[in-house]
């Protein structure tokens, strides 16, 4: 999707979501431009405007389950607004960012509190049985896991780019652990629609990526061992003689 076209689509979504609150048009567009700039940062290979749009599309599909659709949509807009791969408090800072910007637009404080609560749920992607709005947001956020294999691979590659500062072996090990945690859940998705039509595809993609990572990790370890032997031939010879 071309950026200009995507920006137009997102601006329309932004206006539609804020319309019930009677937000000033100029302030609304200024806030939108701010969000576009943040999500267009060069280090965002996956957590960018495309991701926001994809999450909003799935929320639209799942909206009949939601109790407060505008709150879920606004949480989607802000859930990754602060994203630094090396940080541990992105969700907390994203909630603070949402609080500040939405307050400046005149959104009621009780509404903002609910939005902040939803954003924080994306930290561990867990929702209570009665927390339907969190379930809708989390299912939308994890919708990429059930994408077609080629689209999923693009997602996996983009995540690797965002963690390019990590050595390959460390990344592969950590990534496998994250994926395994999702597979160990009784179910990845919460809403009936996603559970019925996306669960199996997500599990297939996760298992496929783990398989690729495990093979690559084994090859990486083998190459590191060979490199070590070449660098220290005398030490390795003595160990073989023991």
Q: How would you describe this structure to a colleague?
A:
The protein is mostly helical and 242 residues long. It folds into two domains: 1-141, Hypothetical protein af1432, CATH 1.10.3210.10; 145-242. The protein is built from twelve helices and no strands. It has helices at residues 3-18, 25-39, 49-62, 69-78, 90-104, 109-121, 132-141, 149-162, 168-183, 192-197, 199-231, 233-241. The mean pLDDT is 92.
Give the key terms.
71% helix, mainly alpha, 242 residues, 2 domains
Compute the separation of the termini in Å: 62 Å
Q: Would you tell me the overall average pLDDT?
A: 92
Highest CATH level, the class of the largest domain: Mainly Alpha
Total number of distinct structural domains: 2
DSSP strand content? under 5%
Q: Major beta sheet, specifics?
A: none
SSE order: HHHHHHHHHHHH
How many individual helices? 12
CATH topology of the largest domain: Hypothetical protein af1432
**Helix coverage percent of residues?**
over 70%
Give a brief outline of the structure.
The protein is mainly alpha-helical.
Write the layout of secondary structure elements.
Layout: H1 3-18, H2 25-39, H3 49-62, H4 69-78, H5 90-104, H6 109-121, H7 132-141, H8 149-162, H9 168-183, H10 192-197, H11 199-231, H12 233-241
Helix pairs in contact: 1-2, 1-3, 3-4, 3-7, 4-6, 4-7, 5-6, 9-11
């Amino acid at each position: 999707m071309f950026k200009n076209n995507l920006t137009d689509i997102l601006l329309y979504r932004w206006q539609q979501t804020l319309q019930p609150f009677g937000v000033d048009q100029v302030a609304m567009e200024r806030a939108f431009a701010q969000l576009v700039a943040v999500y267009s940062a060069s280090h965002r290979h996956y957590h960018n405007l495309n991701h926001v749009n994809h999450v909003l599309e799935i929320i639209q599909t799942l909206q009949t389950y939601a109790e407060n659709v505008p709150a879920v949509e606004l949480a989607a807009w802000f859930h990754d607004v602060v994203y630094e791969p090396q940080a541990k408090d992105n969700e907390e800072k994203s909630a603070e960012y949402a609080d500040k910007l939405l307050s400046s637009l005149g959104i009621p404080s009780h509404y903002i509190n609910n939005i902040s609560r939803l954003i924080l749920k994306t930290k561990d992607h867990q929702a209570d049985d009665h927390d339907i709005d969190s379930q809708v947001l989390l299912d939308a956020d994890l919708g990429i896991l059930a994408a077609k294999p080629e689209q999923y691979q693009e997602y996996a590659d983009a995540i690797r780019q965002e963690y390019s500062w990590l050595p390959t072996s460390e990344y592969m090990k950590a990534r496998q652990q994250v994926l395994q945690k999702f597979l160990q859940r009784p179910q990845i998705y919460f809403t009936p629609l996603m559970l019925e039509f996306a669960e199996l595809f997500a599990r297939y993609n996760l298992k496929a990526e783990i398989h690729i990572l495990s093979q690559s990790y084994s090859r990486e370890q083998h190459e590191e061992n060979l490199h070590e032997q070449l660098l220290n031939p005398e030490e390795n010879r003595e160990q073989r003689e023991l």
